[in-house]
Amino acid sequence: MKERLQKILARSGAGSRRTAEQYISEGRVSINGKVVTDMGIKVDPADHEICLNGKPIHCSEEKIYILLNKPTGYVTTLSDPQGRPIVTSLLAGAGISQRVFPVGRLDLDTEGALLLTNDGELAQHILHPSFEITKTYAAKVTGRPSVDAIGRLAQGIELEGRRTSPAKLKVIRETARFTVIEITIHEGRKRQVRKMFAAIGHPVLELKRIAYGRLKLGSLPSGKFKIIGKKDIEKILAGN
Ligand code: URA
């Protein structure tokens, strides 16, 4: 996206916009090797090399945080060799110019809360096991797991040679054929929730992530998203 040169310089940490304007007027700024002194010039930092005092600047885009209600049938990778729909296609046409990526994955057949951002540092924080940021899922499982089986999952079970960390579980609905259980975990192993319920003999029929930390998906319709702010990020980080 094209932006005023002084704005780009300021965001790169060169100083205030006024300082950046001063640098431009002093002939200290170049675009693709050519010194520019024109104050009104607009450039796309993705397509041009902008240098200050002969050194390339590092343009950081404005950080953006998006909470999407991922429908089933979408992949959380940024491209798919099999041509299946990718989650970022759901943002098309909304005027989001930043290149965002999903924070962690959700299976093709899992729906629900998916955070997308261009903030690599925050993504790492959320995903790094040491910060123990929780994720809560509503799992519809076959039959009626016993109190004992649910207790085993809560304490941690052996899964592929490694014990799962303690989890929180709450039965939400029970019928003769299925049970809906809310499960909160802070690990992110591949298909972990599905494997945990399969291990106690009650495979998952449907799975939906309903919260990151204390940030709930709420009534956001499937396939829709909203841009979230600092308060919501704090709710995610508070959820350990
Ligand atoms: N656990 C799973 O099994 N699948 C997901 O998509 C997320 C967590």
Question: Can you describe this structure?
Answer:
The longest helix has 10 residues, at 5-14. The model has no long low-confidence stretch (mean pLDDT 92). A hairpin with a 2-residue loop joins strand 11 (158-159) and strand 12 (162-163). It contains 6 helices and 17 strands. The chain has helices at residues 5-14, 17-25, 120-127, 147-155, 192-199, 230-237, and strands at residues 3-4, 29-31, 34-35, 42-43, 50-52, 55-56, 65-70, 101-102, 110-117, 135-142, 158-159, 162-163, 168-174, 178-185, 204-212, 215-216, 225-227. The chain folds into 3 domains: 3-56, Roll (Structural Genomics Hypothetical 15.5 Kd Protein In mrcA-pckA Intergenic Region, Chain A), CATH 3.10.290.10; 65-129 and 215-237, 2-Layer Sandwich (Alpha-Beta Plaits), CATH 3.30.70; 134-212, Alpha-L RNA-binding motif (Alpha-Beta Plaits), CATH 3.30.70.1560. The protein is elongated and about 75 Å long. Helix 1 (5-14) crosses helix 2 (17-25). Strands 7, 8, 9, 10, 13, 14, 15, 16 and 17 form a 9-stranded mixed β-sheet that branches. A 4-stranded antiparallel β-sheet has the order 3-2-5-6. The protein is α+β, with helices and mostly antiparallel strands and 240 residues long. The protein is 22% helix and 30% strand.
